[in-house]
Please model this.
Amino acid sequence: MTKPEFCDAVIVGAGVAGLAMACVLAEQGYSVLLIEKRRKIEASEQDLKGEWIAPWGMAELKPIDLYDDIVKTGVTISSHVSYDFQEGNAPRFDLANLCPGIDGALGITHKDLIEVLYRRAYSNKNIDFIYPASLVGIVQNKQTIVRIQHNQKVTEVLSRIIIGADGRNSTTRKEMGLHAYNRRTNHFCFGAIYDGILNTNSMHEQYNAITNYSHALVCPVSGNKTRIYMYIQAKDVKFFSKKLLTSFAGELKKSSELHGFEANIEAIAPKIVGKPCFSISVDSAASAVGCLIGDAGGADDPIAGQGLSSTFLDVRGLSDYLLNEKSWTYQTYLKYAEEKAARMHKLAVTSVGLSIRDATFDAVGHAKRKSINEKLKKNPALGMLFWSQYMGPRSVPANKFSLQSWERIFSDACMYPIS
Model:
């Protein structure tokens, strides 16, 4: 068997996490081999994947020098309007300056985000790509050997670290001997991309509305495009149809005067896609041979919109440890994994709370939502749990994610997510 080629890092998966990590390490002079199972490194505009970066996630892009490339491609969202058809209110929240130097959240299609990161990575001579290729084994002796299958041949590469960035169904995680655990599915998300349904005055606002049967989010993304997401309970998913989305669009148009925006809701969505929403936890995001980043190392329920922001924090956190320590060992990886585990628990508390408040539509759900909103009016500090999705879990005191705080909001300990 021939002697393995060498690189500093093998990264499995050329999605957002893998491309971003490759860019950060390569730009510091490290050699990176990036492998991807698909035949092309690209995404579809219809992909129902990360398209929203929270203000705190935008702040994480600056230390890893990706902010300028990404912000100019997406749409800055400086305010959020929330409308409850039952309550009849439509408060507007300012998203600008929640994080110092950040103008708000960012909407960007998954396709455009992948293209931005791929261009950046492809231009760096320290990054080599192999695709379509798959990870078929990891051998650890004194050094780590990564076995990669490409063109029906297996290549062995000697690497200082292997980084799994290959999503929720990570092969890297399995090869590392780590395990993932799915939380139950409470709701489904459906989405469609529309052209030109928001006028130019409303392209920097996002809108969500809770109806008798759904929770919908209208989010501007790249250019003149708008994504409408609709969350419905899992038990009602069999009733979903384009007619339901059209019905929601009609209700949204009626409420547009309250929202203060104009919408050409008659536009027809070319394709509606849907998926179940649930979070996954892992026993660890670190092993003796490397780490897991992005969804491979644990993923939050999409209802909280924290996927991209958390991914960029993964990239910044792990790269900080690697760049500041000469020796890359399990102890190095464990520091990163412990921080990620603590953060993912906070995100899980937030997303389950949002699911209870915003994605339950029967009589019990409406009563629960009314009770929660009344408590938040009386004691706004309790709402810090929900504001963490904009400000970031590290900006909110740890006690706001505790069981005691949870019970004060929801009056029920049964749904509290256990780490």
